[in-house]
Structure formats: structure tokens, C-alpha cells
């Protein structure tokens, strides 16, 4: 989690860190004007630094695509095909739009920590050194995702957790556990 935070701060140090910068919403697009109207403290990036956080923010604010926000993004029907992460962010923000950047930031940090922890536990269960789970925290792709408040760290955490659960349910006896440690 510390590596994630250091990477996030380093990636936005030039702009003066603010959690909304991790969502990488470019200024000058119609969605930026809408965001500015509901959250005047939101900080925008230039068009060259833009990324998918704008879609996550939109799905959190307009969870069932009935309001104005979903009309301001491209390919809304495609984007809304995978809204779970944004819905979780909206629930954790208790519906407070101004809290969303901070919630997405904390979700990135927590997801990276859980992904590393669950990967370590999974590797330990399979007989490998749990220290290999730290590779998750040092993976350039995962760190990039965390600096853009994307969903990949949460996806890795979910998959590692489900695999660990599956192994625990599948191999409940000591004899079966020993057979995994070949």
C-alpha cells in the first residue's frame, strides 16, 4: 500500500497531488463542465493525460444511466457494461459526489494491498513463498492502474480471493493440503 501511495504521489507531484487528478478527467470536455458544477474542488488534467477515470466517475454519479452525466461520455452503453467498481465507490461515498475522488483513491490503495495480501496467501497455500505476492505491489501495470484509479487492482484481489476460497473449500483435510505441496 505504501508503494502504491508513493507511486500515486510521484505521478501527480508536478500538479500538486489531489485525489481527483487520479481520475484523469481532461478539462475542456462537456463532462468537465458538469463535474465542475457538482464539485468545484475537482482538479482536471490536460487532454494528453486523460484516461478512463472519467467513465468510472460518471457511472458512480449516474449509476443507472438515467441522469445527465451518462449523456456526456462516449460509448455510454459500452462503458456501463461493467459498473460494479463505480457502484461500490458510490456506496462507500454515501452518495456524496464530492467524496468520490477520495473514495476512488482509497479504493486503489486498498485494492493493491488486498491483491498483494491475497496473492501471498494463495501462493503460500500452493507451497510457494508468500513473498512472491509482493510482486503484485511492484508490477508496473498494477502500479499504473493504481495511479489512474482503474479497476485492475480490485480485479486481481477478487480473482486471488476467489482462487484462495476455492482451494480452501476444495482441500479441507490435512492430507489434501499436503498433496498441494509437491
Termini Cα gap: 32 Å
**What's the mean pLDDT score?**
91
Radius of gyration: 19 Å
State the secondary-structure class: mainly alpha
Estimate what percentage of residues fall within beta strands: under 5%
Model regions low in confidence, pLDDT < 50 over at least 5 residues: none
Can you count the helices?
10
Number of β-strand runs: 0
Name some characteristics of this structure.
0% strand, 58% helix, 182 residues, mainly alpha
Structural notes for this entry:
By secondary structure, the protein is mainly alpha-helical. It is built from 10 helices and no strands. Helix 1 crosses helix 8. The longest helix has 26 residues, at 100-125. It is globular and about 55 Å long. The two termini are 32 Å apart.
Would you spell out the secondary-structure blueprint of this structure?
Elements (H helix, E strand, L loop, with lengths): L1 H10 L18 H9 L14 H9 L14 H4 L4 H9 L7 H26 L9 H4 L1 H8 L4 H19 L3 H7 L2
Helix pairs in contact: 1-8, 3-5, 5-6, 6-8, 6-9
Amino acid at each position: 500500500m505504501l508503494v502504491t501511495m508513493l507511486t500515486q504521489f510521484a505521478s501527480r507531484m508536478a500538479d500538486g497531488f489531489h485525489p481527483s487528478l487520479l481520475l484523469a478527467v481532461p478539462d475542456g470536455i462537456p463532462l468537465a463542465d458538469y463535474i465542475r458544477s457538482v464539485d468545484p474542488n475537482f482538479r482536471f488534467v490536460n487532454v494528453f493525460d486523460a484516461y478512463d477515470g472519467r467513465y468510472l466517475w460518471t457511472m458512480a454519479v449516474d449509476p443507472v444511466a438515467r441522469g445527465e452525466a451518462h449523456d456526456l461520455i462516449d460509448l455510454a452503453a459500452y462503458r456501463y457494461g461493467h459498473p460494479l467498481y463505480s457502484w461500490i465507490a458510490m456506496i462507500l461515498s454515501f452518495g456524496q459526489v464530492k467524496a468520490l475522488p477520495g473514495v476512488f483513491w482509497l479504493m486503489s490503495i486498498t485494492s493493491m494491498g488486498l491483491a498483494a495480501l491475497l496473492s501471498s496467501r494463495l501462493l503460500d497455500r500452493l507451497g510457494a513463498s508468500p513473498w512472491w505476492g509482493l510482486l503484485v505491489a511492484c508490477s508496473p501495470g498494477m502500479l499504473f492502474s493504481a495511479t489512474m484509479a482503474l479497476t485492475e487492482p480490485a480485479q486481481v484481489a477478487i480473482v486471488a480471493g476467489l482462487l484462495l476460497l476455492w482451494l480452501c473449500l476444495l482441500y479441507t483435510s490435512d492430507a489434501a493440503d499436503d498433496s498441494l505441496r509437491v
